[in-house]
Amino acid sequence: MLDNSSKSFSSVAIDPLSEMLRGLRLDGVEYGRCRLSDPWATAFPAEDAARFHFISSGSALLKTPTGEWLRLNAGDAVILPRGDAHVIASGETVTPLPFARYGKKEVCQGVFDMQCADARCGTVALTASMRFNIDKLHPLLQLMPDTMLTSDLATNEPAIPHLLEAMAREVDMDRVGAGGILARLADVLTATIIRTWVEHGCGNTSGWIAAVRNPEIGRVLAAIHLEPDRDWSVAELAKLMGASRSGFAERFARVVGETPARYVARVRMHQARLWLKDGMRVATVAEKLGYDAEASFSRAFKRIIGDPPSHFRGRGDVEVSREMVELAAIA
């Protein structure tokens, strides 16, 4: 995780995207190696984690969350950053089998062979469930497309095919520690894909991504998201941008779409929601965010999130509230 003592936002020139990616990590990764013989089809349910597929040999079709069919050839990979429901198959008319129905055998730590078919395999695929240290409501994940094809991004980032090849070799060798190495490769690959998408795949996107691309506003957003529990003042944020309070507030609202104070409040309550999901007591969350009383924190939380803190405590699969969707989808 980030060591905030290692950098001073006010004294070091910040590349906002690098700062965002520096705080983005994969907390849990599980890989499955599937050997598939035609005909085959697998249905993946919606999940909190991102889903990754890499076709090592052969080919496959991907039915996207919107119902579109995409072809994946050997060497292609796809990330579904929000873990939406989808299907991969050898053909569009094959009835899919739920992924949970497949048996699996651990071949090394964090890597499983999926008992998908007999020895007459025509396609070898690597699938992974990758859990970010942020949830689906983070603006970065909300603004991403449903599917991110590496073939679309590799033209602008030649490192992507090499990272995929390294992952495939690591799985094939079945060596001790493969799970840890794969997790690190996945970290690098995911950050590379996201960076390439932001730099080249967004067109003239406005709102949050446009703000991250803006050197001055992006620096402020990076600071807010890297210290989401901090009660940032407008004066502190204006200092980061090197502007007056009024000039900063006007420009921030114009680029991001709401006032700095409102944005900071939403980010703080978003962090509170994550702590509550992990089982932290309401009183502890209130104290960590600097509230003198649990009741005042609860009122502020409900005003922004739409539900009281007790609604979220310990619920790893809570439903998305309308207010938090608005935060994540600022445009």
What structural class should be given to the helix and strand makeup? alpha+beta
CATH fold descriptor of the largest domain: Jelly Rolls
Taking the sheet with the most strands, its summary is: 7 strands, mixed
| DSSP, total strands | 12
What is the typical, i.e. mean, pLDDT?
A: 78
Instruction: Characterize the overall form.
Output: globular
CATH architectural label of the largest domain: Sandwich
CATH superfamily of the largest domain: Jelly Rolls
Overview of this protein structure:
This protein folds into two domains: 19-200, Jelly Rolls (Sandwich), CATH 2.60.120.10; 206-328, Arc Repressor Mutant, subunit A, CATH 1.10.10. It contains 13 helices and twelve strands. By secondary structure, the chain is an alpha+beta fold.
Secondary-structure map with pairings?
Layout lengths: L15 H7 L3 E11 L4 E4 L5 E8 L1 E5 L5 E5 L3 E4 L5 E4 L7 E2 L4 E6 L2 E5 L7 E10 L6 H4 L5 E2 H4 L5 H15 L4 H23 L7 H6 L1 H12 L7 H8 L3 H12 L3 H18 L4 H7 L5 H12 L16 H7 L3
Parallel strand pairs: 1-10, 2-8
Antiparallel strand pairs: 1-11, 2-7, 3-6, 3-11, 4-5, 4-7, 6-12, 9-10
In short:
41% of the residues lie in helices and 20% in strands.
Tags for this entry?
seven-stranded mixed β-sheet; 13 helices; single chain; disordered C terminus; disordered N terminus; alpha+beta; 331 residues; globular; Arc Repressor Mutant, subunit A; Jelly Rolls; five-stranded mixed β-sheet
